Amino acid sequence: MTTQAESYEFQVETRQLLQLMINSIYSDKDLFLRELISNASDALDKLRLERFNDDTLDVDTSDLHIRIDLDATERTLTISDNGIGMSRDEVVNLIGKIANSGTAEFVRQLKEAQKEAEGEGATEELIGRFGVGFYSSFMVADRVTLITRRAGQAEATRWESAGEATYTIEALEEAPQGTSITLHLKPADPEDRLFDYTDPRKVREIVTRYSDFITWPIRMEALQVPTPEEGEEPPAPEFETVNSRKALWTRPASEVTDEEYAELYKRISHDWNDPLETIRLNIEGTLQYQALLFLPERATANLFSPDAKHGVQLYVNRVFVMDDAEELLPPYLRFVKGVVDSQDLALNVSREILQQDRQIESMRKRLTKRVLQSVKGLAANEPEKYTKFWDEFGRVLKEGLLQDFANRDAILEVSSFLTTHDPEKRTSLRDYVERMQEGQDKIYFLTGDSRQAIENSPYMEAFRAKELEVLLLTDPIDEVWVDGMPEFDGKQFQSVAKGEIDLDEKEEAEREEQKEQFSGLLTWMSGVLTEDVKEVRLSNRLTTSPACVVSDENDATPTLVNLYRAMGQPIPQERRILELNPKHALVEGLRTAHEARPEDPKLAETVELVHGMALLAEGTQPDDPARFVNLLATQLGESLNK
Ligand SMILES: Nc1ncnc2c1ncn2[C@@H]1O[C@H](COP(=O)(O)OP(=O)(O)OP(=O)(O)O)[C@@H](O)[C@H]1O
Fold first, then answer.
1. N or C, which terminus of the chain has less Cβ within 10 Å?
2. Where are the alpha helices (DSSP H) in 429-507?
3. 39 lines ligand 1 (CB under 6 A)
4. pTM above 0.95, yes or no
5. Which domain of life is it from (predicted)?
6. Given 3.30.230.80, 2.30.30.520, 3.40.190.120, 3.30.460.10, which CATH number is that of 249-392?
7. 289 DSSP β-pair partners
8. Which of ligand 1's atoms lies nearest the C-alpha of 83?
9. Which of 10, 42, 126 to mutate to test the pocket of ligand 1 (most atoms within 8 A of CB)?
């Protein structure tokens, strides 16, 4: 027997909110299910807690679960839970009114934003600030019936509304404990992203997308029901649990196996391989969150494309909120995959909010530190894994040297580089510094396209002769970060292709003598090449090549100039310096020839050739390659006929 249904009016604010729901402020209507499942899950948590605190409470908590029933003929979706339920008063206060003054404020602000011309963006942002929970049912239903019985109470309550001005309430004598909400669905309209929510596949898809990690089982009728034999009664429907419930990050680390981590990783990353490393983080305190992050074994093909996705998913209390949460880790850690589950954010937090949120910023800092720490751990304890990691992601990580000044030292500490010290293995800067020679106070490096190109470069000659270790930086990004990096461990970085290099303890007297011998040649050559170089001087870095071009200490190298040009930020290329090897036969020959025949026009051509060769040796084209080749061919031809 039921009592007469009584009709009540909604509060003004509730009515406004319902109107907004009906007119769909969310573009993604599937979200209604996430909201209802979250409410059901909360109700189950509450019952468990109440039972824990009061063991006289007469309730069966042995099979707490959520169930979803679909009826295509009646066009209904019913979601039930055997959780805490609600008393009649609670229904009136919690469902009939907007108990939360924040929600009322939300409605007010939303109306205002919508009145203004630029409504769209503002609306989206506002939605992210407030929860709208239960009312989101009205995005997909034109009538909602709720039947509920509070745990430990005998009387049940039925609430119903068509989302307009009123709702009805009546007492029921009987109902299962917990809450069951039936949505009388609007006709499907896929163009408006209003799908057919009586389709079990669609509903399963939404459950696994948003609610897969809910602790409680979410049950639905099994998809494959065997067809009954002729004349037999159809079997009772079988139910199965459709969510994996495997929120591994909420379980103690000791209870989770590597296989389980790998399985979760593969699901969220769509990678076939196991992760290279798993990182767990559990933060308690004013801000509570857990993270389960993975370093993949391989880089994805689009890692360097501008639309590369970030790999971290954001959850709020085990409920999926968004993919690709780029606010949680800096761009140079975009290869990290995983899950961050916060207990402090609102379920419908928007990207706009994430971007401004101080809590998110503190999360990002913490997560970044933790990832770098874990790379450091690999470098120290698992060199093979570290090498694999660096092969795949070193280039991306080094972007951090330009983006994240706060962690610059930490990134340098875990970086490794090709080196003349070892033909195969890379070196860390720490190891380089330890190997530095007596009296050496700089970290020497040279940038270039490949190990081979750098090693064959004339700049390396004196360093090789002195057995001084040089880092061989072959990634384009190296050129940029090293240019702005003050030092590592108190040692400055020094390009072997820049500035004056003096490795020789040659006698001052010998040097002075050379200077004097060559001063006429140097002055004359500077005049010949005045358009191309700012100085011609004797070199201390060459042993076998006749000449090389170097940049002044503070000038950009040609590679850097090209890089900036490619990025659309042209910087000027300063004139460079031509250095001559006084011991080379060509240079010596040029000196004596110039002394003997200062006016010979052929000699000026030879100077041009020396300059062109120096450019070629570093991989730069002479300004006029055709002229260079012609001059060379003529001179070679003449030398044969002498
Ligand atoms: N399945 C349920 N069982 C028991 N109580 C429920 C259930 N669904 C909703 N309620 C009660 O109704 C209240 C209002 O629900 P509603 O979804 O509107 O907002 P909320 O869950 O409090 O906040 P949010 O906006 O974060 O969803 C809940 O706080 C809860 O007390």
1. C
2. 429-435, 451-455, 461-465, 476-484
3. yes
4. no
5. Bacteria
6. 3.30.230.80
7. 283, 342
8. 3
9. 42
